[in-house]
């Protein structure tokens, strides 16, 4: 399979328009346009019955104690975990494109709805956990919410945009399913996959 993430080049910085958080000299971070990028795929294998689209960041700190804290840094030595930013499953086999802004256009405090959407079924992303302690933002976040890595992190973050062709029409996932649920349900059903990886940081020392 081939995947084109329009506006995101392999190994290059992700444009601000696709970010949940953008750099701010005054406040470290301000809300970004948070639009999902257009994704187009082809060379689909025979027998494909549905697609899964996901985006995740494998560079998220496993311990959040120092995240976005003045006078502290998130050490590059800290173990990292996956943070899912986008989960869209049960995309019909006749679909080969997610338009820009289709699944997100702006930051929505307290999140977007999970479940059936225009092009598939939305899963719950990890902003649900990350913002749980913020009374103005806490909620269930589904669909696409873009990059917003800690502004005091010593490492550049990588964002993997993926599409997977499956041999089943549905993963039969319901409710507030997450990235691990999707990976478990996909196991043994993936006919082909494609990935584009972009990078992003809010750390001024890394931005230059």
TrEMBL record:
InterPro entries: PEBP, PEBP-like_sf, YbhB_YbcL/LppC-like. This is YbhB/YbcL family Raf kinase inhibitor-like protein. Gene3D superfamilies: PEBP-like.
């Amino acid at each position: 399979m081939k995947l084109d993430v329009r506006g995101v080049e392999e190994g290059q910085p992700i444009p601000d328009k696709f970010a949940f958080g953008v750099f701010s000299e005054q406040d470290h971070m301000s809300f970004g346009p948070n639009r999902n990028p257009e994704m187009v795929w082809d060379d689909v294998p025979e027998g494909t019955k549905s697609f899964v689209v996901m985006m995740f960041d494998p560079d998220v700190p496993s311990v959040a104690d120092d995240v976005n804290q003045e006078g502290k840094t998130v050490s590059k030595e800290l173990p990292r975990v996956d943070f899912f930013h986008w989960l869209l499953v049960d995309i019909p086999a006749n679909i080969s494109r997610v338009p820009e802004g289709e699944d997100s256009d702006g930051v929505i405090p307290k999140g977007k709805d999970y479940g059936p959407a225009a092009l598939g079924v939305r899963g719950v992303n990890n902003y649900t956990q990350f913002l749980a302690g913020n009374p103005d933002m806490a909620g269930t976040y589904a669909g696409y919410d873009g990059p917003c890595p800690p502004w005091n992190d010593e490492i550049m973050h990588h964002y993997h945009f993926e599409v997977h062709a499956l041999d089943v029409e549905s993963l039969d996932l319901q409710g507030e399913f997450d990235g691990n649920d999707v990976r478990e349900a996909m196991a043994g059903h993936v006919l082909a996959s494609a990935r584009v990886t972009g990078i992003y940081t809010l750390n001024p020392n890394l931005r230059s």
